[in-house]
Amino acid sequence: MAVNAFVPVCAESGFCGVLQRKGAFMFADRDEAGRELALRLHAMRDQAPVVLALPRGGVPVAAPVAEALNAPLDLMLVRKIGVPGHSELAVGAIAGPDGQTIVTNPDVARMEGLNEHDIEQLAVAERAELRRRQALYLKGRAPISLAGRTVILVDDGIATGATARAALLEIRRSTPKRIVLAVPVASTESVAVLRPLADEIVCLSILQMFYAVGAHYRDFPQVDDAEVIQILASHQHWAGPQQT
Question: Where are the domains of the chain?
Fold first, then answer.
């Protein structure tokens, strides 16, 4: 994987990564990205962290991270709130089992003529999807407690940062000791927005020109429910107690 004209960014700036000015920082697939990310996070193994994945695409990336750190793997349920007719454009995002944490993108809302009530109406369907995923993925299991723990939040990449922003705010409500956002690739703009919400950001490639997360993977198929369930089942020995 070649990196063209890069500048290492670390420590004092609050995140570690490669600021890439041009070219492509290519991963074969999500598993390879996760294994490379795990190498950068290895020093955190002694902190007994909890690894949280953003489903669905973040789950195959988070799995090798959890394995390398000998850490429990769980999910941070989150959904993007898309603009009507252009669902990939995020006007906001919700996080948590009931979508109780909501963030908005005022610039997109203004551009699309959407007010707070409109966004709440759009969030209704996404909250229903969060509840569906919680029932399907966790099967009555209580989420792993994050209180007093180092939490590593993993996704397959960050474009606008809306879902990651909602996830970080929701995690902070659980009073963790420390939050680390770890991703293979992100835009410089999203890293700047998310920096105040995480104690540390670890990103393998930070790009000034960013089009889509999938453009930085050779193989980037959709992750379906079955794959998420299979990966979680392989980490079942870390599962929390069943809810009664």
Answer: 4-75+144-236
pTM of the model: 0.87
Rg (CA), the chain: 17
Which class is 4-75+144-236 in CATH? alpha beta
Write a three-state SS string for the chain.
CCCEEEEEECHHHCEEEEEEEECCCCECCHHHHHHHHHHHHHHHHHHCCEEEECCCCCHHHHHHHHHHHCCCEEECCEEEEEECCEEEEEEEEEECCCCCEEEECHHHHHHHCCCHHHHHHHHHHHHHHHHHHHHHHHCCECCCCCCCCEEEEECCCECCCHHHHHHHHHHHCCCCCEEEEEEEEEEHHHHHHHHHHCCEEEEEEEECCCCCHHHHECCCCCCCHHHHHHHHHHCHHHCCCECC
> What does the pLDDT look like over 5-44, one tens digit per residue?
233 344 334 444 444 433 454 799 999 999 999 999 999 9
Handedness of CA 133, 137, 142, 146 (dihedral sign): negative
